[in-house]
Structure formats: C-alpha cells, structure tokens
Specification:
about 170 residues, Helix-turn-helix domain-containing protein, InsJ-like_HTH, WH-like_DNA-bd_sf, mainly alpha, single chain, 8 helices, IS150/IS1296_orfA-like
C-alpha cells in the first residue's frame, strides 16, 4: 500500500502526552508503532503551535498574511533563528508550508510570498461579448480548412496503406 497513512487525533494527542512524560522521538514512535519522522513533525508542531493545532491537523487550513510570512522567513534567513523557533514565535503550524516559503523567498525574494490568484484567469475560455458576422465566418472557415486538411491526410494515408498491402502480379 503506497501513500501516507492518516492517524487520528487520539494518536497525535497520545504522542504529545508521551513527550510531556519525558519520552523521546524514537521511544514514542516505537510505542505507537509509527515512523519516527512522523513523530518528529508532530512534536515540532506541538512545540511551536500547541496542542490545539496538533489536534486540528488536517481539518482546516490557516491563511497567513504576507507580513507574517515575511517576518517568519526573515527571522530564519536573516536573523539565524531555527525553523521550530520561528514557527513557535509566529504561530505557524505547517512545517511543509514554512519550508516552501523559505525556498520561494531564497529563490525569488519577498514577492514570491504574495498570494497568487486562484482559479481560471479571466479571459480564458470562450470569447465574451457578441461576435460579428465576419468573425463568425472567419472561425467557420478555419474549422472547415482544418477539417479539409484532416480528410486529405486521411485519404492519403489510406491510399498509401492500400498500395503497400496490394497484391502484386507474379511475373
């Protein structure tokens, strides 16, 4: 079975509880029968954002302002703060999102963190407004020319195939 395994809230909360009792990542992973890397991510989230965020994982996405993103990224890149420290200070729950922000900032600068428009861009799809008779006829001519070229090519290919498979008289 491929893909990520989903764990319920109880398992995540139990991992935090074991951590508070003094267990390490490896011990928690062994006790819960799961990968140590998963436990590490959970504990980073628990330490940086708290038990509430750990419990809410996978339920809703938090939208962060451009200012929050920039401040968190600059704290790591310019001030030398560690990722977990920055996540805790700025209340960022998702390590994967934070890594993407860091990469984008390093490669493209602060503009890369601006929100991008979602959905299909305006103007794509069918042309809006009324088309003139001339535009309609031009579109029809292009379609018919393409259809004509397709048919000619199809006929030529069939004729070529027939000539290759036709029986030649014995001499």
């Amino acid at each position: 079975m491929a893909g990520n395994v989903l764990y319920d809230v109880g398992v995540r909360l139990r991992a935090a509880e074991l951590y508070d009792e003094g267990h390490g990542r490896a011990a928690i992973a062994a006790l819960l029968g799961m990968p140590e890397e998963t436990v590490r991510k959970w504990l980073d989230i628990y330490r940086s954002a708290g038990i509430e965020v750990l419990a809410m994982m996978g339920k809703k996405r938090t939208a962060y302002s451009l200012e929050t993103k920039l401040a968190a990224v600059r704290a790591v890149v310019d001030e030398g703060m560690t990722k977990p420290e920055a996540m805790a200070k700025f209340g960022i729950a998702s390590p994967s999102s934070f890594k993407k922000w860091l990469k984008a900032y390093r490669e493209e600068g602060p503009e890369a963190l601006r929100p991008k428009p979602r959905g299909r861009p305006r103007g794509s799809g069918s042309p809006s407004g009324e088309t003139t008779r001339e535009q309609e006829l031009e579109r029809r001519i292009k379609r018919l020319e393409a259809e004509n070229a397709y048919l000619k090519k199809s006929i030529a290919l069939k004729a070529e195939k027939r000539s290759r498979t036709a029986r030649r008289p014995r001499s």
